[in-house]
User: Which sequence fits this backbone?
DNA sequence: ACAAAAGTGTTTTGTCTACACCCATGA
DNA sequence: TCATGGGTGTAGACAAAACACTTTTGT
């Protein structure tokens, strides 16, 4: 953890260290207790929430920058991370330009590259950045006010996630190692925001041949114990090359 | 047309005029005589071909920059234009950095935003830029050597086009005002690189309700004259909101 | 009159959808 | 023992795929 003074020095140097005019914003999705979540931060000074973001070091590939930023906020590495859109309106950071009038670095135009990440909820240890006091998961059904154009960035990410559901290993990245069929179904229902038929869902998912059915069942529920599954990563990758066929 | 000296002055000022570190590359697709084409330029000095590209003015929205660049190369406005990927490898412009060692502007790292455009072939008047002697259509079956990472950019655009075939008004943008069913089918076959059944194709396309069947037929062929169609733009837009369902 | 391309309709096949019954478990 | 959720199978609807015959036109 840097002291206040070290921080000030860091941002005074930012213009030298980081590639100017380019930023990265990440929409980090997690899934917990049947709810889809986004990782967000709350500003020190106002009731405004924003998405994890950062800048690109002078000689750093952008994918690597996104990974680094994500690791700083979540503690995890090797996450599923995809570029989805670039936000390049000259007015998108108007608020920052006003707030940081005297700061050379922040007072410039930024083209922001949007990434969305899919992570296993339980692995994440949310860590605030130097502008925030809070870093935490927000439920998609209970979102706060967004700063800047971050609402737009978030919406675009969510739309992309829905479109790519059949082309990306979304289940694999968001579910824990072992999970039950109803849990996986809940994930799909949450992302798509619609109910799916239990039996058809099962047949379809199993038909892809991307799951391993385990011998154990999930005990402790008040009812019949469901089987546990894990992903067959090799088959999953192969299947995704072709895209999982058909729409929901 | 600028003189050589005016050009030199322009690029000497580039650092002031354009947003540093950000560039735009466009993959312009056209369709002519049953062949899919890309618009490319050839360097003055070498046997290297590259994609139309340019930079973003300080206060210019990026979509507007892409449109401006496209207009400069093709003469047309209001084209179908979509962002598809950002290319941010620090080494991607290594060649330029070496070639333009003494130029402050070119000798910097560029994050390039990739756009693909779909245009009506006959509307385009290819115009070289200040680094090229030739601007012309290249057949997808007869592509030249690419400069920098432009082969990668092109491939990524083509993959995106295939994926989005059912979600974007691709036929509308690439076909002339009036066209026959076999011509439209050829377009789909070319993009997807596979043969389609004539009757099923027709039923499917007509089923979307996005075409107007005209009374005239295309005379002059050596055989039965096919009917002409035009797009019903209103229905097309509506249908695309939902995505044209099903895969080929 | 024939070759080649275009128009159109029917049968077959397979996939998605809707639905019902049995089973296991904790309360 | 009952309420609840989980496991599994089947018949019907619908859409895609396969396929054949007729029509038009230039040579």
Assistant:
């Amino acid at each position: 953890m840097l002291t206040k003074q070290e921080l000030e020095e860091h941002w005074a140097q930012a213009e030298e260290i980081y590639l100017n005019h380019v930023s990265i914003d990440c929409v980090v999705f997690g899934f917990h207790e049947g709810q889809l979540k986004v990782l967000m931060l709350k500003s020190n000074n106002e009731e405004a929430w924003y998405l994890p973001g950062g800048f690109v070091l002078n000689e750093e590939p952008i994918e690597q920058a996104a990974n680094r930023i994500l690791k700083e906020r979540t503690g995890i590495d090797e996450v599923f991370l995809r570029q989805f859109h670039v936000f390049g309106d000259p007015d998108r950071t108007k608020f920052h330009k006003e707030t940081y009038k005297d700061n050379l670095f922040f007072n410039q135009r930024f083209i922001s590259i949007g990434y969305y990440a899919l992570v296993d909820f339980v692995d994440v240890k949310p860590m605030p950045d130097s502008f925030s006091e809070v870093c935490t998961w927000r439920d998609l059904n209970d979102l706060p006010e967004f700063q800047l154009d971050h609402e737009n960035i978030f919406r675009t990410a969510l739309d992309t996630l829905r479109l790519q559901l059949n082309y990306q290993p979304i289940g694999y990245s968001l579910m824990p190692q072992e999970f039950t069929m109803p849990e996986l179904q809940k994930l799909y229902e949450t992302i798509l925001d619609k109910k799916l038929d239990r039996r058809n869902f099962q047949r379809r998912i199993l038909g892809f041949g991307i799951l391993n059915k385990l011998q154990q069942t999930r005990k402790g529920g008040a009812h019949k114990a469901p089987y546990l599954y894990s992903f067959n990563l090799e088959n999953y990758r192969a299947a995704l090359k072709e895209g999982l066929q058909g729409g929901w």
